[in-house]
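Note to self: keep these together.
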Amino acid sequence: MRELVFIKDYKDIEKYRVSFNALAQRSFGIQFEDWYQRGCWNDRYICYSYADGDRVVANVSVNVMDIVVKNEIHEAIMIGTVMTDEAYRNQGLSRKLMEIVIEEYLQKCSFMYLYANRTVLDFYPKFGFHKVQEPEFYSVMRTLEAHNDRTHMRKLNVTDVQDWELVMRYYASRNVRYSTCDAIHAEGIFAWYCLHVFENDLYFIEELDAVVIFMEEGNSIQLYDVLSPKQVDLSQVVNKIATEQTERVYYQFHPEQGGFKVEYPEPSDDNLFMLPNRLQSLDHIKLPKIAQA
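Structure:
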């Protein structure tokens, strides 16, 4: 086995990008190539990797963004796409890459964060990360008025140029939730979610002048985001997207308006970890799901 070489920020070097995509596909069943080809892979998503020749064998990615927390804007680093090729595990490669990233960024940001599944809950505390219990916000639909159909909204198609431009335009001009929590300068990861997770879940509601992202799960709705240049009443959004069968609407961001309930669920495969610096705590804060990697 040849000596491994450390490489970073190589998105425009095809041999490494292709290998990185292959590793991501094997590790998580995801890929980044069409995201790159659309011009959505910007300088805020940076890969830190070890390569064996032309082959990327381990990676830790950095997402540079700003997070609004209680009316203050904080420079934040989100860590994601942590993976090692099966043949190169147990060599401490992920540990070394984490140390490189933390040394480079910690003093430049207010905090670092990541989401971890149950299999690696003991790994990140070794670097100073601590687990944060995120709240879950939801509305009970018996207290709200639901529409029986959805003829008032248009489903958007990410392969249609005009629809894609509409979604990205509304993201760029959206009313940022400054009161409690929101993400800024996260258009890259937002675009990736639209292409690979929410490609069938984007709707335009002309009456509200809003792009709404939601999924149905049985009798529940997961509401991921509301994009509009103006402040939109969430109860109006909920009334538009709910049907008579809807029992609960869960908010995958920190809602600003009342009318919701809150609970703290049991640990899952999306566990938030935080490495504090200038910002010491994210207690009782829900980060936007679309700002999660």
